[in-house]
Amino acid sequence: MTPVALQALGPDWLDPEFLISTFGLIGVLAIVFAESGLLIGFFLPGDSLLFTTGLLVADGQYLRYPLWLVCLLITISAIAGDQVGYLFGRKVGPALFRRPNSKLFKQENLLKAHDFFEKYGARSIVLARFVPIVRTFTPIVAGVSRMNYRTFVVYNVVGGILWGTGVTVLGYFLGQIPFVKANIEYILIGIVFVSVLPIIFELTRAWLAARRGTTPAERRAAAEAEREAREYAQAEQAREQH
């Protein structure tokens, strides 16, 4: 890949083609597993790695396996990673939110996933697959929140298939288009950019909310206070009628 692409995608050792050429399919599966539910996996490439995997399967370069087998193994790794994240969250529980920051753990990443989970509920298990960082922490938050296990498994399987198979197949077929092959560096940069758009949107929204003096947490607190005041007024009205 060109130096420009490498700089845009991160350090050389996070370049998808470098990772695949060095570690092969086993490396892809390990990264997918780690990024799907291990706290230390949030910085690993996800979407660009799967797209490049599909492209290299089409080329027969580094990965000489049938597409269906690669998709199946990636999907299983993605589902297994989320399962581990969920079980970890259930075991650790709310104490995780009191864990101090470190080089590989930031409370803000966990809180973003928590807000994402609170906003979308069970659907977040599927939607988070397509949002970097949030993808890693959402199954953990689901475990901390003690989401119904059967419900989690269903959404986990659906999300694993859509993401693991979908992005890989997309890379496989688009990678056979001459224009895509000739501009793969820029395609990967585009994938990275699109994948972080939700994060940029949330950060912008939080910044604007802070400028207005109302953060999401403050709005939730205000809504809760308004609900309690309304219930109190209704109770008082009922008492006076009796």
Q: What report would you give on this structure?
A:
The chain has 242 residues and is mainly α. It has one domain (3-196). Helix content is 75%, strand content 0%. It contains 11 helices and no strands. Helix 2 crosses helix 3, helix 4 (67-92) crosses helix 7 and helix 4 runs antiparallel to helix 8. It starts with a helix and ends with a helix.
Topology:
Elements: H1 3-9, H2 16-37, H3 47-59, H4 67-92, H5 107-120, H6 124-127, H7 134-144, H8 149-174, H9 178-182, H10 184-211, H11 216-241
Helix pairs in contact: 1-10, 2-3, 2-4, 2-7, 3-8, 3-10, 4-7, 4-8, 5-7
Gyration radius over CA: 21 Å
The DSSP helix count reads 11
User: Describe the biggest sheet?
Assistant: none
Order of helices and strands: HHHHHHHHHHH
What is the overall silhouette?
Answer: globular
- Class by helix and strand content? mainly alpha
Please name the defining characteristics of this protein.
mainly alpha
Describe the structure concisely for a colleague.
With 242 residues, the protein is mainly alpha-helical. Helix content is 75%, strand content 0%.
